[in-house]
């Protein structure tokens, strides 16, 4: 898997504020949204475009526009919703599919509880968004789901990643021959005994939406 840790002072600044236990939920949402837009800029470096010409007030100009079929953005519910707007701001014509996955806190295994995605994803570029790549179980299950529907190009955007999660994805998809990219704001130290990223930022879903 190709992993990009975006090294930029604005990313580091916003991430530090996100980590802060004293950052309240409205500020956390705003920062997550801003951070995603910065990550999305890097994550869309390979987005497919076709040649397109326009007339400027002065002369014809050759350029490009996003190719059909448009990219698909897939937030993993619930915490991935906090990353959706940051993505669609940069990719306004993207379609959005939803994947509801929950981690069983005793086994740390991912279970799918909701899906709203096109049946056929062949030829689609898919951007799957989930703030925390911890054990990697949820993201691996999500990516497998997308591959099973025909996707051949998946980029995952996570605010934070743990080495264990990256290793899990590398193992899960070694030899599939399908390109997978991961774009993240930081690679943290490790997971603790409860599966939380250290130092991390806590439970991203709770910090975005409250403990419900
Ligand atoms: N999910 C979270 O929200 N936080 C973690 O640290 C790990 C998984």
What would you note in describing this structure?
This protein has about 210 residues and is α/β, with parallel strands linked by helices. The chain has one domain: Rossmann fold. The chain has helices at about 10-20, 25-45, 85-90, 135-150, 165-175, 205-210, and strands at about 1-5, 50-55, 60-65, 70-75, 95, 100-105, 110-115, 125-130, 130-135, 155-160, 180-185, 190, 195-200. Strands 1, 4, 5, 6, 7, 8, 9, 10 and 11 form a nine-stranded mixed β-sheet that branches. The chain has a two-stranded antiparallel ribbon with strand order 2-3. Helix 4 (about 135-150) links the parallel strand 9 and strand 10 (about 155-160). Helix 2 packs across helix 3. It is globular and about 60 Å long. The model has no long low-confidence stretch (mean pLDDT about 95). It binds uracil. Uracil binds near residues 79, 132, 196 and 203.
CATH class: Alpha Beta
Helix content: 25-40%
Cofactors and ligands: uracil
- In total, the number of domains comes to 1
Unreliable stretches (pLDDT < 50, length at least 5) are none
Helix and strand content put the structural class at alpha/beta
Order of helices and strands: EHHEEEHEEEEEHEHEEEH
Query: Which architecture would the CATH scheme give at its second level?
Result: 3-Layer(aba) Sandwich
Q: In the CATH scheme, what's the topology name? A: Rossmann fold
Question: Taking all residues together, what is the mean pLDDT?
Answer: 94
């Amino acid at each position: 898997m190709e992993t990009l840790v975006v090294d930029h002072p604005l990313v580091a600044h916003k991430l530090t504020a996100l980590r802060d236990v004293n950052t309240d939920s409205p500020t956390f949402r705003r920062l997550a949204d801003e951070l995603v837009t910065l990550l999305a800029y890097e994550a869309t470096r390979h987005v497919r475009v076709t040649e397109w010409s326009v007339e400027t007030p002065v002369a014809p100009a050759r350029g490009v526009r996003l190719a059909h079929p448009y990219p698909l953005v897939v937030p993993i519910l619930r915490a991935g919703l906090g990353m959706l707007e940051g993505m669609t701001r940069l990719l306004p014509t993207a379609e959005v599919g939803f994947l509801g996955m929950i981690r069983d806190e005793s086994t740390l295994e991912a279970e799918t509880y909701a899906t709203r995605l096109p049946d056929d994803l062949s030829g689609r570029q898919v951007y799957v968004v989930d703030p925390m790549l911890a054990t990697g179980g949820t993201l691996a299950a999500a990516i497998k789901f997308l591959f099973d529907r025909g996707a051949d190009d998946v980029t995952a955007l996570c605010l934070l990643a743990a080495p264990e999660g990256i290793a899990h994805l590398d193992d899960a998809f070694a030899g599939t021959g399908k390109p997978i990219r991961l774009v993240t704001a930081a690679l943290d130290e490790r997971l603790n005994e409860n599966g939380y990223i250290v130092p991390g930022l806590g439970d991203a879903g709770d910090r975005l939406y409250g403990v419900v």
